[in-house]
Design a protein that fits this description.
CATH topology: Growth Hormone, Chain: A
Number of helices: 21
Distance between the termini: 21 Å
Helix content: over 70%
Strand content: under 5%
């Protein structure tokens, strides 16, 4: 019954499009600080590593608050929670724009991360409630076009606005985006009877909050997914966060240009989403994660050895393609880890993803300030293929009772 109801929900594409808009704004906020770190450091008299705390604070808050939003989404609803969170994001974002000193900015970014935390994970869980597993990876691939465009927009917006109007205006523009999207989501919730029904149909027959987390962690396959996504985000974003600074300082290009090159990461992700259906049918889950890890390794190696900045453009494209091949497969498996507590399970997945990212960026900041970014790229180049190939090996031999399904190539 659940599957039939959920299939019907997708006869309202506007509801999905609006979720994509909200995800766009949330993703833009995640990466907007990357290219503006030199300007933030200059204004507050800090190092680039210290300014990177604005990235870490957002990521930590984003990850930790999943522990609240996941159970809330399971107990009440998901669509309405996303709408409310979109409005709430304006508070921390406007506070960031008005920051008189660095610690204020860091605290504001933490608040923004805490409120943005509900948007993308609950949208993914909502899709998990709506789409059978055999179609879910392709559907999620289409949905993540919104977050990917947000990453592109955030990277470019951060560099361009910092070079022109000043970095504070980035947060003003993000706030306007949140308000407009929140209004549209609330209107959809009020006027679309089908979405309203789904939003009010969350079961109240759930374990208590703490017991939901325990139930999720008892599943062996859940623990494998959580560890893998932590390692993935630690390895990839511990280096990616410092690529714009690296390009700016090594090659002397502007922050706008550095942000634009890093935004090609998102174009690589879009290349994957456009071709996801064909790739899934041709090489399946195991092929996606193996090739994705190898792509990442090659891309970081190019960043490491490049003698001129044009080489970093295809490297950025390959980084995005490889990451989304690997991450989308992990994401799809995460939606089926514990179906009766899907919101909690997906929230835990995102928690581990952002904790891995925050630890990676924090460690990366220390390395950048002491030894430079080359060590980051070298370690990511070595570790990424191991993660992808290792997870492909696990997919091949996991036990049937822990499996959400067979390889997607055979299911489709």
């Amino acid at each position: 019954m659940q599957v039939d109801t959920m299939k019907t929900s997708f006869h309202s594409p506007r509801a999905m499009i609006l979720l994509g808009y909200a995800a766009f704004a949330s993703a833009a906020a995640i990466r907007v600080c990357d290219p503006m770190l030199p300007e933030i450091a200059k204004e507050f008299g800090s190092t680039n590593g210290q300014a990177a705390s604005t990235i870490t604070a957002f990521a930590i808050a984003y990850g930790l608050f999943q522990l609240l939003y996941g159970p809330l989404g399971d107990h009440y609803n998901k669509y309405r929670l996303i709408a409310l969170a979109t409005f709430a994001c304006t508070v921390g974002t406007l506070s960031a724009a008005a920051s008189p000193y660095l610690n204020w900015l860091i605290a504001s970014r933490a608040l923004a991360g805490a409120t943005a935390a509900a948007i993308i994970p609950m949208a993914i869980a909502w899709i998990g409630d709506n789409v059978p597993y055999v179609d879910r990876q392709e559907t999620l691939a289409r949905f993540i076009s919104g977050p990917i465009l947000g990453l592109i927009g955030g990277q470019f917006l951060g560099g361009f606005v910092a070079d022109t109007l000043g970095w504070r205006w980035c947060f003003v523009l993000l706030s306007v985006m949140y308000v407009l999207t929140g209004v549209l989501l609330q209107r959809e919730l009020r006027n679309n009877q089908l979405v309203q029904h789904l939003a009010n149909s969350a079961s109240t027959n759930r374990p208590a909050f703490l017991n939901q987390f325990v139930s999720v962690l008892r599943v062996k396959w859940t623990r494998v997914i959580l560890i893998t996504v932590f390692l993935e985000s630690f390895t990839v974003f511990g280096s990616v966060a410092f690529i714009p600074v690296y390009l700016h300082t090594r090659f002397g290009i502007s922050l706008t240009a550095a942000g634009a090159i890093m935004a090609v990461f998102g174009l690589g992700g879009l290349f994957y989403t456009v071709n996801a259906g064909r790739l899934i049918a041709r090489i399946g889950e195991r092929g996606l994660v193996s090739v994705g890890g190898i792509f990442l390794g090659i891309a970081f190696l190019i960043f490491l050895i490049s003698k001129s900045w044009p080489w970093t453009i295809p490297a950025s494209l390959m980084t995005g393609t490889g990451f989304y091949m690997l991450h989308n497969t992990l994401q799809t498996n995460a939606t089926q880890m514990v179906p009766f507590a899907r919101g909690t399970a997906v929230a835990m997945f995102v928690t581990f993803f952002f904790l891995g990212q925050s630890v990676g960026v924090a460690l990366g900041a220390t390395i950048v300030d002491s030894a430079g970014p080359s060590w980051l790229f070298a370690s990511s180049a070595a570790a990424s293929p191991l993660i992808g190939i290792g997870f492909a090996f696990i997919l091949r031999y996991r036990k049937t009772e822990d499996s959400p399904g067979s390889d997607l190539r055979t299911e489709v």
